[in-house]
Amino acid sequence: MSDATSTHVAIVGAGITGLTAAFHLARRGCRVTVFEKGPQPGGSIRSTAEEGWLYESGPNSLQYGKDIKQLVSDLGLESSVVPANPLAKRRFVVRGGKFVQVPSSPPAFLKTSLFGLRTKLSLPLEMFSRPRVRTTDLSLAELVRSHFTQELVDYAVNPLVAGIYAGDPEKLSVRHSFRMLWEAERSHGSLIRGMMAGAKARKAAGEGGIPPIVSFTGGLQTLTDTLAAKLPAGSLKLNAAVETLLPGQPHRLVWKQDGQTQSGEFDAVVLAAPAGALAQLTIGTLGERPLASLENIPHPPVSSLFLGYRRDQVAHPLDGFGGLVPAVERRNVLGILFSSTLFPNRAPDGHVALTVFIGGMRQPELARLTSSELLAKIDQDLRDLAGVSGAPVFLRHTFWPRAIPQYVLGYERWQEQFTALENRHARLFIGGNARDGISVPDCVKSGLRLAERALDK
Predict the structure, then answer these.
(1) Cβ atoms of 209 and 199 closer than 8 Å
(2) What is the pLDDT of residues 88-119, one digit of tens each?
(3) Which CATH number is correct for 4-45+220-297+407-456, 3.40.30.10, 3.50.50.60, 3.30.565.10, 3.40.50.12280?
(4) First-to-last C-alpha distance (Å) of the chain
(5) Is 271 helix (H, G, I), strand (E, B) or coil?
(6) Which of 7-11, 128-132, 266-270, 301-305 shows the lowest mean pLDDT across its residues?
(7) What's 173's DSSP letter?
(8) Which pTM does this prediction carry?
(9) Where does the Amine oxidase domain lie (predicted)?
(10) Is the CB of residue 17 less than 8 Å from the CB of residue 36?
């Protein structure tokens, strides 16, 4: 193990992954320099308080699992944690043009109108499936179809994937995007029995059940702002775009900050930038871009509309987390989050807030529309699904041209490139949402892993 106190580590990217890695390395005595090409740290995590509203432009909540709890404790943020409203346990999916509550127990599943008799019978029968060892990857939709019904794909898997990835289950790899299902089938045959066994094992290991949903009093940006503030003075470089890595012992980085080209030497380099930025990075003296093909990872565009209304403008009780829309329902929205129900103080008194997501792999062209064009496109959906009447009294539109990396079939070709580059250059470490998972907890875990690897070699 290297002497941490004499190690200078460069972290490229000040999203949640890079900030987490930098924070833990600094706590262990390393000297860190974090490069962020944008004007502020935090990546896609952005919270804004304005005119009595509090809205998120990126992720809206996070699961309060072991790694997040520890990070919150290390940052001294426990008093700022806000648990989700108990009503958030109620989730909805659109069927027949209206929100239907997702069943949360076996008795509720038997009674629900969301699924028909054939699908309801397929679940207990699936538990008798025998283990199978697949030699090739398959899509999430294909896996679920082979165990259950197309209806379950249409009204459970499809909206779930829209909510998590803004993606298409016909294209997502089970092995890379839902690995627990891949392993469950290999070990137990039955997806249900495999998932039950996995939950039992996690409980025995002290990891508990499904982590609760939380945010912070000032929104999720509290987490990234605090991480950045806890870094040693002068270690975070904003508006600093790293252009070239010259591997060696030490490594040399060349970056441009505020129009001026600079360079420096580092004992280790952590790459925690998005796939598009990594694709542009020159590595070596000959202008090589070994990660150029990362540009081909699908990243669908997504628009997020935060809409504020007077309470009397919305007929729906908004008694839940929100609702997702299956593709077969042929709507223009991917989902509607009941933001002012989910957490307190997201809307002024007498008002409610909805966050609407549009685009993704399903309808990428819609995401690129202007705010007024989007409102016109989703007006009927808002009326039909949430009983909205009239124009919003508050609106904020966030457009993400390359929103979420899609772990599609064949994703191993990109994973192998990460591994090959690390193997080629000692003390170069790569992580983030293009490699280690797309959720905030995934990215925090990635940052922790990167920090430990930088310390251990």
Answers:
(1) yes
(2) 999 999 999 999 999 999 899 999 999 999 99
(3) 3.50.50.60
(4) 6
(5) strand
(6) 128-132
(7) B
(8) 0.94
(9) 16-454
(10) no
